[in-house]
Amino acid sequence: MRRLLTVLALSATLAAALALPAAAQPPGGGSGDGKNFSVYVKNLVRLSGSGYKGGSPNLPVDFDPPHCWYQPQYTYEEMRDWAERIRFVWHHEGPEGQRESRDWYEQILAEIAPHAGEPGKIFWFLTDDGTDAGWDCYMSTDPFWKYVGAQPPAVANDKIIDPVDLALIARANLTLPDPVITLNPPRGRSFVGLETWVGVQDQGERDVTAEVAGTNLSATIVARPSRVDISVHGADAEVHDGLARCPEYRKGADLGGACWVRFNRSSLGAPYRITVTQTWVVTTNVAGVTLPPGEVSAGTTVIIDEIQSNVTR
Questions:
Q1: Cβ atoms within 10 Å of 123's Cβ, excluding its own
Q2: What is the model's pTM?
Q3: In what order do the strands lie in the sheet with 294-305?
Q4: Strands 272-284 and 294-305
Q5: Which of 37, 186, 189, 235 could join 272 in a cystine, given CB atoms 3.0 to 4.6 angstroms apart?
Q6: Could you tell me the superkingdom of the organism this chain comes from (predicted)?
Q7: What is the per-residue pLDDT across 117-152, written as a single tens digit (0 to 9) for each?
């Protein structure tokens, strides 16, 4: 029978059974309509860091982080309490409920009995990331809980959350700042044949840490600027880019260490558009994990004039 507690035809009063004593109560809850009941636990993954600032995460279209997973939820004693409280309410649902609650309760006790005395949150419950994909994953995954132990080994695609999963979750929540562009000559005007210096402000590194609250499970990712690419729309121009950083203009600075555009034709009074795309390489402290880079873009405009010369005869 699929996820017993999710689809049993019980009264919504069973929700009261999910509230453990304050000393042992995990985050979570339930809902019901008098016919069907669903039970859930809240996501224990906590996110922090300079790269976790809200807004829209910067993700490649083909990046697919974990959307649901098993997380450490109950000790042996908490699991017994949880089952007892559900049995207690279910028992008051009439003769059929009494029989079913007894059978279910005895089955749960038999399943967890071999683990009596084991320390830590050894029973892990399914949760999701709060997205539509997470809900689909949650509803299509069985069982709702399982014995895992206090510190399981990392196994790919087992949905038991581990540092590899946390690194992927951290990457899914990384936000990167848009490039901040400065041009020289300033004020949005330059000249044919002159190197128009394109500076991109150094905004430092960005990091995100994902950790499971109350455990030693964690992963940290760090994003560093690695390349700047420049494109010019509708102009005949030579572009010098591909550097890790594009410093702002300094008198006497070497053109080879800078990003610039040399326009070969004037813009005839209308501006050319310059787009700067900054690539950030993303690494993690979790061994064996390769994360996709991030890309952010911004644009500005410049009017290109002919250099006027005075001829004396």
A1: 23
A2: 0.84
A3: 45-48, 206-212, 218-233, 272-284, 294-305, 189-191
A4: antiparallel
A5: 235
A6: Bacteria
A7: 999 999 999 999 999 999 999 999 999 999 999 877
* DSSP codes, 275-304: EEEEEEEEEESSTT-----EEEEEEEEEEE
Structure tokens at 112: 């967890």
Domain ranges of the chain: 4-42+67-160, 181-305
Q: How is residue 36 annotated by DSSP?
A: -
Contact between residue 189 and residue 305 where contact means Cβ atoms under 8 Å apart? yes
Residue 6: strand, helix, or coil: helix
Three-state SS string over 247-280 comes to CCCCCCCCHHHCCEEEECCCCCCCCEEEEEEEEE
CA–CA separation, 201 vs 296, rounded Å? 13
Token code pair at residue 14? 């069973």
Other beta carbons less than 10 A from residue 203's beta carbon: 15
Residues 164, 156: contact at Cβ < 8 Å?
yes
d(CA 9, CA 5): 9
Q: Which long-range contacts (CB under 8 A, 24 or more apart) does 140-145 make?
A: 141/68, 142/2, 142/3, 143/3, 144/3, 144/4, 144/5, 144/6, 144/39, 145/70, 145/73
Nearest Cα residue to 66 out of 146, 123, 127: 127
CB of 123 closer than 8 Å to CB of 138: no
- Give the tokens for residue 293: 């880079």
Residues whose CB falls within 8 Å of the CB of residue 159, separated by 6 or more in sequence, listed in order = 66, 68, 69, 70, 126, 141
Q: How far apart are CA 248 and CA 225, in angstroms?
A: 16
Rounded CA-CA distance 124/142 in Å is 12
The predicted-structure confidence for 191-236, as pLDDT tens digits, reads as follows 999 999 999 999 999 999 999 999 999 999 999 999 999 999 988 9
